[in-house]
Structure formats: C-alpha cells, structure tokens
C-alpha cells in the first residue's frame, strides 16, 4: 500500500533543489523543557555597585511619635 503523494501541476510550489527536509531528533516538548531547565540553572546577574549604600549599613526609619488627645 503506497501513501498518497501530492504532485503539483505547476512550478510555483517546487522547493529549491538544495533543500533537505529532516526530522528533529528531540520532541519539541522535551526540547522546551530542557531549555527552561538551562535558563533556571544560569547564574543570576550580580547587583550593581551603585545600588548599595555608601556607608554599608542599613538606615533606620525615623520613629513616629504617638500623639494622644
């Protein structure tokens, strides 16, 4: 039993002569999962030096005094 094959009657749909059609070695879902895992394992970018306070310690917030009437 031979599968049905499309044979065009015009030249507009002919592929280039050097085109090679192959199948993927990995399933598209597995490839996506592996790419996501690689992205999670990649080291994060270090914080810039200008984000840190110059004196190197935390600043305390000004306390708010409770005013009762």
Detailed description of the structure:
InterPro entries: DDA1-like, DDA1_dom. This protein is mainly alpha-helical and 69 residues long. The protein contains 1 helix and no strands. It has one helix at 28-41. The mean pLDDT is 76.
Essential attributes:
single chain, 69 residues, rod-shaped, mainly alpha
- Biggest pleated-sheet summary: none
Oligomer: single chain
Shape: rod-shaped
Instruction: Sketch the topology as an H/E string, one letter per element.
Output: H
Beta-strand portion reads under 5%
**Helicity level:** 10-25%
Distance between the termini: 97 Å
- Spans where pLDDT lies below 50 across 5 or more residues: none
Q: How confident overall, as mean pLDDT? A: 76
Count of separate DSSP helical elements: 1
Write a compact overview of the structure shown.
The chain is mainly alpha-helical.
Task: Show the helix and strand layout.
Layout: H1 28-41
């Amino acid at each position: 039993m031979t599968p049905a094959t499309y044979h065009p009657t015009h030249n507009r749909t002919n592929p280039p002569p050097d085109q090679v059609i192959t199948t993927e070695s990995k399933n598209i879902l597995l490839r996506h999962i592996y790419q996501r895992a690689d992205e999670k394992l990649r080291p994060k970018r270090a914080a810039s030096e200008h984000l840190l306070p110059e004196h190197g310690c935390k600043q305390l917030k000004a306390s708010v005094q409770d005013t009762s009437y």
